């Protein structure tokens, strides 16, 4: 049985500007980088990037888990990490696949910018911020809603749709921050505009039944994000009848092995999305996305500009 030398260290990455969503303001991304070394010198890297307000473990819980591990761990111990620690499951399995030489060489995975969706700044700064990424090749843009008054945000979306060339696409992400009435209003506006690819998580996860009903009543698609953040939640929403878009933040969803099995079994409509992790986590997610998804929807990884080194 192979033992892997295990090392880890926490990191902090301040955002250039706080990321405003209806969950509040996010100013520093904290996570853990881990490595596994085998006896013949192979090394695999992984990342633990919690987003507790999405339902993952906290950074403290992940650190406590890492600290109680021995300096050498086995494959069995890696695949026995409980589902209550989904970011740890993802980070350790990423490193294990790399040290075993199972993952694609991550440096080869580089879809062109047209396969990425660019996360625009919040509020009306978006209107001045889409053109530079457009000139870099981005054709998909995401903007946060549910932060300012709806009439102000609708006006900004109409101006954005007017300004962005017709071949571009816009995604709106409410982070569950709308009321039922506002969600209906947004869906009617988007059906009229016709240029919005989907509205992400219009209502909080506990209003699943309302979103399921809405998904049958409007032509603008609805994407679940917070509702399907972990594999347990994702499977539950599928069993409850969701056949709309699933936003998969693989870095916080849990076991890579289990996600592969689920996507092999159920042909779901997916958008792979960043957990605002570092390049280590990003490459581990994009390699998995290329393996298990048709990538027909742009991946939500146009986010590096949110960090100083981005
Ligand atoms: O999905 C994307 O296009 C970019 C990533 C992104 O929007 C998010 C990452 C992490 C937490 C959230 O604030 C936000 C989201 O809700 O999707
Ligand atoms: Mg989202």
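Q: What amino acid sequence fits the structure above?
A:
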């Amino acid at each position: 049985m192979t033992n892997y030398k295990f090392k880890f260290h926490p990191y902090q990455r301040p955002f250039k500007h706080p990321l405003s969503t209806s969950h509040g303001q996010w100013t520093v991304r904290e996570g853990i980088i881990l490595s596994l070394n085998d006896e013949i010198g192979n090394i695999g890297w992984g990342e633990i990037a919690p987003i507790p307000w999405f339902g993952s473990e906290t950074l403290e819980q992940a650190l406590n888990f890492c600290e109680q591990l021995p300096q050498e761990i086995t494959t069995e111990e890696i695949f026995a990490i409980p589902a209550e620690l989904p970011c740890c499951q993802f980070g350790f399995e990423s490193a294990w696949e790399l040290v075993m030489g199972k993952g694609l060489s991550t440096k080869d995975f580089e879809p062109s910018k047209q396969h990425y969706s660019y996360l625009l700044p919040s509020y009306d700064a978006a209107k001045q911020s889409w053109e530079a990424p457009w000139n870099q090749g981005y054709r998909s843009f995401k903007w946060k809603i549910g932060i300012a008054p709806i009439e102000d945000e609708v006006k900004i979306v109409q101006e954005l749709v007017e300004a962005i060339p017709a071949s571009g696409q816009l995604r709106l992400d409410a982070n569950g921050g709308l009321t039922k009435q506002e969600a209906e209003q947004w869906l009617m506006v988007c059906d009229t505009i016709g240029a919005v690819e989907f509205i992400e998580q219009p209502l909080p996860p506990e209003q699943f039944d309302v979103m399921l009903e809405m998904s049958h009543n409007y032509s603008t698609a609805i994407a679940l994000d917070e509702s399907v953040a972990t594999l347990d939640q994702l499977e539950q929403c599928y069993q409850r009848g969701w056949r709309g878009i699933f936003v998969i933040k693989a870095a916080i969803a849990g076991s890579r092995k289990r996600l592969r099995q689920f996507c092999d079994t159920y042909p779901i409509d997916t958008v792979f999305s960043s957990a605002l992790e570092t390049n280590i986590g990003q490459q581990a997610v994009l390699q998995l996305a290329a393996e298990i998804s048709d990538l027909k929807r742009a991946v939500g990884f146009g986010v590096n500009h949110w960090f100083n080194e981005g």
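Q: And what stands out in the fold?
A: Residues 86-99 form the longest helix (14 residues).
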